[in-house]
Amino acid sequence: MLNTGAITTDSLSLLLLDEKKCSADVLRLDKIHPIISGNKWFKLKYYFKKASEEKKQIIITYGGSYSNHIIATACAASEAGLNSIGIIRGERAAVLSPTLLAAEKYGMQLQFISRDEYKRKEDILFRKEIEEKYADALIIPEGGFGYEGIKGAEEILLLVDKAKYTHILCAVGTGTMYAGLVNVSGPTQTVVGICVLKGIENLSIQLDAWAIHNEKKSAHQILHDYHFGGYAKKNDQLIEFINTFYRQTRIPTDFVYTGKLFYAVTELLKNNFFPAGSKLLIIHSGGLQGNNSLTKDTLIF
Ligand SMILES: *Cc1c(COP(=O)(O)O)cnc(C)c1O
Question: Is the CB of 255 within 6 Å of ligand 1?
């Protein structure tokens, strides 16, 4: 079961931090659960609450073959005693990814739709069709992106003494976690999101328009220079960074999200992005099972 008690806030010890007269704590959401790791549990919490209140029997959600959200939803549904359906982008592969195999193991029924069809999944007609077909289902948008997901993500900062920090940093996929963090951050804090997808430079404008309701107007920005070519794209430099970072800190990261986040933090430190005296809180959002798709021996942990 979920173990929020296992979450720690680890102080990061790196020469670079000393050199720049900054300090950093890492919120280890990766320790919460081996499968529903990191931010996924927070993002799912209020969707499952809603399903229970509305007495839904089925959870339906969307994702790709390596989606942490798919596996987390499958696992959470099985723990809640609900059926789950995962609508997966693309044709069914001859050999399913480890993520999808695990989702099936948790009882998720997988339905594969073409990439073109997948793009239409938020269209009103498409949604209506699904809603009519599965009247007793709760539909969770891809990545948990929506009101409930953001509300859950706001609770991440209840785990720390948030007033201590000048900067809060997180990886950005759909931006759900980022929006939640911005909503509960204070006026003297800056939230920095590291986008791991390519080509969604207008995301922050969209989030500001409907999801971010921070009356205190804390500073916030999404950086788009650290996606390494796009979602789940990687190169030798990133893999080498992940291994070196593990050697230095004993903190495991993944190549889709948190590896890029910590890489970005070290680059930002080198470039004097953070004024001396800054106290950073870095959200380790989990997702380590994504590394299972790498060939053995790529990573040292
Ligand atoms: C899903 C995920 C994210 C992205 O969260 P969003 O709320 O979609 O931006 C970040 N880190 C990890 C490890 C994830 O699995």
Answer: no
**Average pLDDT for 152-156:** 97
pLDDT band with cut points at 50, 70 and 90 for residue 35? confident
Ligand 1 geometric centre to CA of 251 (Å): 17
| Per-residue pLDDT, 218 | 85
**Is the full-model pTM beyond 0.85?**
yes
How many CA atoms lie less than 13 Å away from 148 in the CB half-sphere? 17
Instruction: Measure CA 12 to chain center.
Output: 21
DSSP summary character for residue 91:
P
- Candidate from 27, 154, 285 with most ligand 1 atoms within 8 A of CB, to mutate: 285
Cβ(194)–Cβ(163) below 8 Å: no
For 69-84, letters b (16+ CB in 10 Å) and e give bbbbbbbbbbeeebbb
Q: Is there a contact between 167 and 279 (Cβ–Cβ < 8 Å)?
A: yes
Whose CA is closest to 190, among 174, 172, 167?
167
CB of 39 shorter than 6 A to ligand 1: yes
pLDDT band for position 1 (cuts 50, 70, 90) = low
> Which tokens hold the place of 256?
């889709």
Is 286 close to ligand 1, i.e. is its CB under 6 Å away?
yes
Provide the Cα torsion 172, 173, 177, 180; round to 10°. 80
Residue 122 has pLDDT above 90, yes or no: no
Which segments within the chain are labelled E, that is strand? 9-11, 23-28, 58-63, 83-89, 108-113, 137-140, 167-172, 190-195, 219-223, 279-284
> Which atom of ligand 1 is closest in space to residue 193's alpha carbon?
9
- How many Cβ atoms sit within 10 Å of the Cβ of residue 107? 13
Distance of CA 265 to the CA centre of its chain: 17
Q: Strand ranges (DSSP E) for 196-292?
A: 219-223, 279-284
